[in-house]
Design a protein that fits this description.
The chain is of the alpha/beta class and 212 residues long. The chain has a single domain (2-208), classed as Alpha-Beta Barrel (TIM Barrel), CATH 3.20.20. It has helices at 10-16, 27-33, 37-47, 61-72, 86-97, 110-118, 128-133, 138-152, 166-175, 184-191, 194-207, and strands spanning 2-6, 22-24, 52-55, 78-83, 102-107, 123-126, 157-160, 179-182. Strands 1-2-3-4-5-6-7-8 form an 8-stranded parallel barrel, surrounded by 7 helices. It binds SN-glycerol-3-phosphate. SN-glycerol-3-phosphate (G3P) binds at residues 6, 24, 26, 127, 129-130, 161-162, 181.
Length: 212
């Protein structure tokens, strides 16, 4: 499974840039980065080899397409994040036909994920955390999408998004999701276990007693 970082902060990306497989941003994350938008995207794309998702803000297909064409010119690894909806799906069809990769975002149902795949989206982003926040089952959505995509051989890759904790990542991996995009705080936790820290401490203490 590939791990993307869900952030627009250059400092946070720098910490993991040699380990992660891509980046996802959204307007909220870009607002937190507090830098001129294009400058921030260009800087991130130059740092990261993998795909960098950048979201359009237009609400009609035509507007999304022209915004996407402009964003795609920033760097070769830009992936256009398109909000789910009839206009979004129209834009995805057009952009993928032009060779501009898309990531259908704000997906909360298997039917929406089916439309994204039918339109030929490169990626789909189901938001598991926001579903769990409302007492739903985000991981059930992932397993339904995986089954639908397998039934028809769709090539669209699933980015498990809105990740809140390590368990989301582990469950996504157990189900066989292609990618999880994780906030930096969760990315750090993926490496750690208290028994690892304790083990290192004990080995180092014992190493001091080894005759040299
Ligand atoms: O980037 C999309 C998604 O990961 C947002 O997560 O935490 O705002 O639900 P969150």
């Amino acid at each position: 499974m590939r791990i993307f970082l869900d952030t627009a902060s250059v400092e946070e990306i720098r910490e993991f840039v040699d380990l992660i497989d891509g980046i996802t941003t959204n307007p909220t994350l870009l607002a937190q980065a507090a830098k001129p938008f294009r400058e921030a995207i260009k800087e991130i794309c130059d740092m990261v080899e993998g795909p960098v998702s950048v979201e359009v803000t237009a609400l009609d297909a035509e507007g999304m397409i022209s915004e996407a064409r402009e964003l795609a010119r920033i760097a070769d690894n830009v992936v256009i994040k398109i909000p789910m909806g009839t206009e979004g799906i129209r834009a995805v069809r057009a952009l993928e036909a032009e060779g501009i990769p898309t990531n259908v975002t704000l997906v909360f149902s298997p039917a929406q994920a089916l439309w994204a795949a039918k339109a030929g989206a490169s990626y789909v982003s189901p938001f598991v955390g926001r579903i769990d926040d409302r007492a739903g089952d985000g991981m059930e959505l992932i397993s339904q999408i995986l089954l639908i995509y397998e039934n028809y051989g769709f090539k669209t890759e699933i980015i498990v998004a809105s990740v809140r904790h390590v368990r989301h990542v582990v469950e996504a991996a157990l189900l066989g999701a292609h990618i999880a995009t994780v906030p930096p705080a969760v990315a750090k936790k993926l490496f750690h276990h208290p028994l690892t820290d304790e083990g290192i401490k004990r080995f180092l203490a014992d190493w001091e007693k080894v005759p040299r």
